[in-house]
Amino acid sequence: MVYLVLFLYLVTLAVKFDFNKSSKVNRAKGNANSWYNFTLIVMIFVSGIRYKVGGDSISYYYFFNDIPYLWDLGKFSFVKTQFDPLWILLSSTSKSLVDDFAFFQIVHAAIVNTVVFWFLKKYNTNRFTCVLIFFLIFYVYFNMEVMREALAICTFLLGYHTYRDQKWLKYYTYALVAFLFHSSAMILFILPLFRNIKIKPYTIAIWLVVFVVMTFIPDTFKLFLKLFVFNDRISAKFNAYSNIKSNVNGMLYLFGLYFLIPASLAYYNEKRLKSHPKFKELYFAYFLIAILTVAFSGFNRFINYMTPFMAVYFADLLNRIYQYHYYLQTRNAIISFVIALAFVPKLMYYFSDTSSIVYGTHRYDMWYPYHTIFDKEENYKREALYEGLFSTSD
After folding, report:
1. DSSP character for 67?
2. What is the reported pLDDT for 17?
3. Least enclosed by CB within 10 Å: which of 184, 231, 302, 354?
4. Alpha carbons 29 and 322: distance in angstroms, whole number
5. What integer pLDDT is reported at residue 393 of this predicted model?
């Protein structure tokens, strides 16, 4: 129920402050900041006070007992642990202040959601639509699953302006901090290689070549990429991602989801709506990662670094369609279609059957029903499902 209430609440705010451009609403927009800040508090609260809601959250809940206090960090082996240094440091600091995983959840939720809300507001005036998209696509994922990676992504968001402005020393400082939160941030170290490459016919040819090489001679491609891997932690992470492959149907699905739909929407936005969208310096890198994901589905972890930018882009696109005079009679139907195009795959993911792992379950059972730290209701079906789906942490 909490998810439905939050969804309806966010839809109301998006309609009131973003889509409704009447003068009466514009005069009321002085209240927008208050509503925005209140929404941030609500979303921190919802994710922060949960109790064993989410898959990887269960793993972190139990591992928290092994986190040392700050005064014992000198005895802790950072080399042997599966977790990254800044995650251990943040967990240790939280535990030293309040020895309760619930407190750490609130700290984590405050960091992640505050950074995301700041980013959405900074780069899009349609901030409530951005928050709605954030909620639908990656709120649960960032707050209740990939908690370590979410901190790395937030570090990238904070430092994005250095990438945009090509201030490389500062950028690589942010990249290093992100990497110390989660090893998947290794993608940030090679991102600048694609900063100035435009999407042209020859770049499309590059994507096709990369796809053919990865699909038909994957070992050669892996060997090439391993030249850039310099330590055991990165090597293990890279091997985990590159060994996950899909069948033909899966590849077609991933191609449509991560490549064809975003490319079509981008083309429509620029050619039909005459928009000059943000983040064009990320275009080539995104579609290259998308091609990697089609060949090796494990690489979709790297797309996580792009999802906040996609939320901003998508919110802008929806509002442009709504305001475009040519669509005044059909805009509601068009917007509904575009939203369905983007979000139906996510719904399919949540409602996928997991009965082969735990009888009578679906993937959404990882997050529903929602329990809080105040009732601490155990859900043994969820824990069994976690053991089957996520034998290792993120």
Report:
1. P
2. 87
3. 231
4. 19
5. 47
Nearby residues of 124 by Cβ (< 8 Å), 6 or more positions away: 130, 278, 312, 315, 316
Find where tokens 């064009």 sit.
280
Across 294-317, b (16+ Cβ under 10 Å) vs e yields bbbbbbbbbbbbbbbbbbbbbbbb
| Tokens 């290093």 found at | 176
**pLDDT score of 216:** 60
Q: What pLDDT does residue 328 have?
A: 64
| pTM listed for this prediction | 0.86
Which one, of 133, 100, 174, lies nearest residue 18 by Cα?
133
Instruction: Write out residues in the chain with pLDDT < 50, as ranges.
Output: 23-24, 27, 227, 230-231, 235, 242, 392-393
Tell me, what's the pLDDT at 102?
93
pLDDT of residue 213: 64
User: Euclidean distance between the first and final Cα of the chain, in Å?
Assistant: 27
Burial status of residue 34 (CB atoms within 10 A of its CB: 0-12, 13-18, 19 or more): exposed
Q: How far apart are CA 228 and CA 290, in angstroms?
A: 20
Helices and strands of the chain, counted as H and E runs: 21, 0
From residue 114, alpha-carbon distances to 9, 68, 110, 173, 335 in Å are 19, 27, 6, 21, 28
Interatomic CA distance for residues 359 and 361, integer angstroms: 6
What is the per-residue pLDDT for 297?
73
Spell 52-82 as b/e; 16+ CB within 10 A means b: bbbbbbbbbbeebeebeeeeeeeebeeeeee
Cβ count near 269 (within 10 Å): 19
For residue 196, the model assigns a pLDDT of 84
Gyration radius from the chain CA atoms: 21
* Token pair listed for 301: 């972890």
Q: List b or e across 214-241, with b for residues whose CB sees 16 or more CB atoms inside 10 angstroms.
A: beeeeeebbeeeeeebeeeebeebbeeb
Tokens 């002085």 — which residue?
30
